[in-house]
User: Fold these one by one.
Assistant:
Number 1:
Amino acid sequence: MPKSTFIVIEQSYIIRKGLISLIEKIPNTQIILQIDNMNDIDNILNHDPDFIIINSNLLDKNVTDCLSKNIENVQMILLSENHKNSFNEINWVENILINETQNSILKKINKLIGNRISNQPQRYTPDEISEREADILRNIALGYSNKEIADKLFISTHTVVTHRKNITRKLGIKTVPGLTIYAILNKLIDLDDTN
Amino acid sequence: MIITKEIKMADVIHVNYYALSVLNRFGIELGFGDKSVEEVCKQNDVDLDFFLDIVNTFVDKDYFPKKHLQTFPVKLITDYLQKTHNDYHNSNVPEIEELIEKMVDSCQTQKDNIVLLKKFFNEYKEELQNHTNREEEAVFPYAHAIENAFNSDKIDTSVIELMQNYSIEVFQNEHDNIEEKLFDLKNIIIKYLPQPKDVKLCKKLLHELFSLEQDLNDHARIEEKVLVPKIREMEEIINKRFSEESKNA
């Protein structure tokens, strides 16, 4: 299962650490940034998290405007003292209350992680191609020749060629550099792998 | 629809506004009122038959130039192709680069992906440059040499040697598919790139890519349907004349 990454933004040390220790109880989660202010939004955005949990006291019009423009794939969770419908510029996926019980918070976060993973299967096995084709594509993108791929996967070169033809037909991408970009966009390989 | 010399030049643009770039390469400026294609060509000192062939090849991909119209000199064709090359390098490509650069700057969350696109396009740019260089350095001079020989009274053996080392057939075979990568780039943006926040930039970029692709396809058609057949015919006649001349000698 892929890891879900979190950024926690909360001014109170105790609440921040408490919330983090809660999230870390959930398997496959990772806190990639914890801060107590909103002074450096660029830094936050550069971390490219799956979830941002932020205390409503840290929000103002400027912050929400900037966030709403720049978060496309991030799920935003509002941390507050009571239910309130403010800062509607941001599409909050959940509201966690300071005085909520441990069970209730765990339930909410678990549900969000579950939704996220079931909503984005194409990030790991693209819809357009089969798992076997994804294997082949991964190797093409890594720069292996037909012969090398055949040897690696214990199949004939002819089969590799057939798979390649099918991949190109299904994706509408003909060139190796094009296929490489597709593989990176769909997280079949990492950008660093190509260098 | 086939554009004829009687049609109003303004209507040519209405049929396909991309043809503007063709007019531009002939040095024809807008503001021609209700003048016909023939009148505008005459006014601008443009070879009418050549213009019709080029503009029809551009607007209709199935158009086949009539043989008897191919009377214009090879120099006209290569000059036109040279101008299309200049357009790619001085206008189309820089515009696309600028748009991609803007996308990189304006995007926060998927900078990596856009940088990837940029890299891809840079590779493409290099390929395009190699492609046009080869045409300018090898193909065009060859075409001129063939035409010179064709027009001379006596066929020189050096031309026959030249033809033995290279022929327009070789060019046609090695003519790689320069549009393929562009096609991929379009499809990646249309189908697979997570939509960046700035949709406007993305649309503009696609527009530019489509327009460059259209122009490249047109460029390839002019080579295939006008230049190559013309040179091939000259090659055949030169060979024939040479064998007759050597028989008589």
Number 2:
Amino acid sequence: MKKNINNITIIAASMICLFCLISCHKVKIVTATTSDLNIYPYLQGNPDQFSEWAKIVDKSGYAGFLTAYGSYTMFAPTNDAVRLYLTAVNKPSVDAFTEAEAKDMVTFHLIQDTLMTNQFKDGKLPTVTMYGQYLVSGVTNTNGVSSVTINRQALITQGNIRTGNGYIHALDHVLKPATKSSAQLISDDPSLSIFKQALVATGFFDTLNTISTATPKRWFTVLAETNQALADSGITSYNALFAKLSNTGNPLNPLDSLHIYVAYHIIPEAKYLADISSASSHFTLQPLEVLSSKLSVEKVLINDLEFNGVHEPGVELTRPSSDVSTTTGVLHIASSHFRAKLRVPFPVYWDVADFPEVRKLPAIFRKPGATLDFAYGTLKDFNWDNPANVMTYSGDGPASSNFPTYFGDHLTVPMGTTSRHHWIEFRTPLLVKGKYNIWICYRASKGSGALTSSTPISGSNCPVQVSFDGVATSRQFNFCIQRPLGTDGELLALGWKKYSDSSRIANSTAYQYMSGKFVGAVDVATTDRHIVRFDVQPAAGTGNPNNYLDMIHFIPVDWSSQFLPRMGTNGAFVNF
Amino acid sequence: MYKNITIKITFAILLLSGASCKKWLDLQPRDGITGAAYWQTKEQVQASVMGCYASLLGSPNGSRSLAELLFLWGELRADMLATTTFTINEEIDIMNVNILPTNSITNWRSLYQTINYCNTVIDFAPQVIGRDQTFTQEALNKNIAEVKTLRALMYFYLVRSFGEVPLKIKSTSSDQDIEQIPKTSKDSVLAQIIKDLTEAETDAAITYGDRASDKGRVTKYTVNAIQADVYLWMEKYPECIAACNKIINSNQFGLIDGTFSNTWFNTLYVNGNSNESIFEFQFDNQRQNTFYPLLGASSRRLVANPLVLTDIFAVDFVNPLNIDIRGDGASARSTDNMIWKYSGLSNDNRTQRASTQYSAHWFVYRFADILLMKAEATNQAGNGQEALDLVTRIRTRGGALAVTNTNPSPGDKDAVADFILAERSREFAFEGKRWYDLLRNAKRDNYRRINILLQMVANTVPPDRQQSAIAKFMDKNSHYFPIYFYELQTDKQLVQNPFYR
């Protein structure tokens, strides 16, 4: 019996063995989540294209982290590109580079970010290279074939190669970092000699010649004027420029006009033409003076402005000679002479109901009885919190006794803490830098309850805090409170004015609802367009639907009158 | 003994049950019809042809519907759209001339699906002759003409959008038919289109007896309209004029009167199938278009460029009653720039369609198109005055503002061509034609007027990408889409457009 059991055991065991043997096809178990190679292994795995570059990466000692997890973008020169570079720098082979040289080369080709070619713009890439200089992308067309260029030095021959830790873009040339500072480039160019002398005299030459060691690095963008541009304005030598501009005789003095002139040509950031044309204003080294910029079809124009109703033609930056990367930033060439303008503050009587989008609609704009709701996002210069809300334009007509508004129109801006606007932002017209009083001019009205000129009030309530460029003004105003009675002098002392022509004619209770309310004085730091914001206050509750905003006045604090001229329903200014 | 009997009985049962198990071996599926069992009656042919049309309305497999795709292809690369905060990156990339082969809008699958349905009918419908005695050769030819025209239309969109595409004119109906085929040159694709259309023209029906079928199915006039468009694209002007004349001289079509803009808008766009229409995709409330999320919802992804109403249609600042009826309230709504052709329910009080009412048709060809194609061809053939007369007809109907009349001299071919191009942008705003119009005019005479595209892109692309976009458009290959990466993976014979390497 025991033998029998033994026998069975042996048979069973051999059966199991047999089964195991038969079933022992190796099952491939995938242990990696992806078969994508990382950047360095990819370079090694494609020796026909990248063997030389892989050797340089190896030499630099960076192969380790390029094999590991991370997110990088590498611009990898092909073997032909590396050979071209070797010939150019007179080296027999890649082994001749020192480790430091290899490090510089690799870091200049490497970005700690994943960038595909569709993120490239006409200018610097969004992230700086590990070397510390920005790379510039663009597109060129040669013989009908368009290719992406990097730093105007190399073309991408194969883009967006996806690897496990980032993207590789193959290049037909090795990229070479800029070696000269902005100051050096300017002094090397004889056509910029006058501007160079001005830089030296004002002390900015050293600013543009010193590579920043701060973290993050400081960059400067220079808009240099050519001798020709200056000559067009009648300035043929540095002495002529000095004679014309320097009012103190010492250009090193920050108050000297020549100093201001040069400081106004330097932007304390790395801005390529694409950056300049996609923002409307840029700070300069001259405190509180901004350069305004815009793109007119293909031209980048500086200080092309509508000022006080007059168009001032701008200065073009010449594309072919601009966008030059330097070790200290970027160099652009301006086609004609420009300098900061001395402007005196003047009052801006801003009709908020006059904006480009409504001007396009002749059936609505300033038509009695016409109203139109503008949806969220359709108005360039207005913004508010809730996409479901609208901004309503209403035409009252010049003959409306109930709404004697300026030019017979106003905006209806319901505000409240629930479903109505919580806040609204307006972009002002151009304000010259200076100190201004802000007046909110509205037609007081309430959804429920009787209109009064004092707090506390019953029924609808809508107190609003105004802020200018994010700074709250000293006083609030309330859409549901009308101005009190009194003479102009008495009202002014209380912070009110009769801004409407109609309220002057009948100084009675009849036009008390046409209210101009002083909300505070603000310092406008730069000559530019600014943001005024209304924030409804918690006391408003559900708020008020009948907020009729007519105008906002910015009147210099030292202006001859804060309440004159008054605004006529036909658009006329009335000076008594 | 007992055991023996049990075994025998068991065997007997097994034998019996095994013998009766024939049905288990039946390979016919129970929930469908196989190819061999199909193609027996004329009704089945009819159903397959209708299936081809149905595929125009939407894709069963979840890819973008054809009408939406044609809208995106025809408008995204041109100058009449603007983005919202909901626009997806793939759409923005195409608007900014930043197309990668991974952009799913460049997936041509919806078109090839319809092409395969057409190929299936062409391959199998002839078998029904003889099987169904009531199915005549003439009826077969009519059906074949319909699907050949649809196939030609699909290839025409493909060749204009991608340049070179694989030409598949045999159906893929079983696993054995799957093959990897390379791209075919533009000329060969166009030649195949012309061949299909010529064959279809002889056999196509003139009418099906009811309005919806006449506008929603291929008639002889549909064939002529596509012919005109193809010949215009191929710069064969006499042939284009001849095709247009066939439609004009049939006296079956006219322009819808524009005196009352609300009636005009309702007839032409809201209801569709008007006397002006030649071929439309027949959406209805049961089978809606997909424009609600794209153009109508509060989270709409695309709106009209604000310049469309002010610059293209222009505004009379003095007299607000003097308007181009095709502008505000027809192409777009001025208050929020919503694209109104597919979202609007009325022209005068600007009522929007509810989300359950997005049934606006997709307009493939209208009589106005025929007149303007003829104008373009006659101008190129050297008869500028006749071209201008045709444009005036369109302008008068639409109430075009005098500001938009550039008054070109009839002898100045380029000026007249520009004028026609501008008029087409007004007449066919958001009908998926703008990009092809721009490209056709730019590429004429070996890209003599590539500036049309360069100027267009300088104004549409954001400032920080403008120079790149202009430089990219100088490369002719950039005017065509890349092959979607998935197609490259599955068909190793395909070669990517060199611009997208």
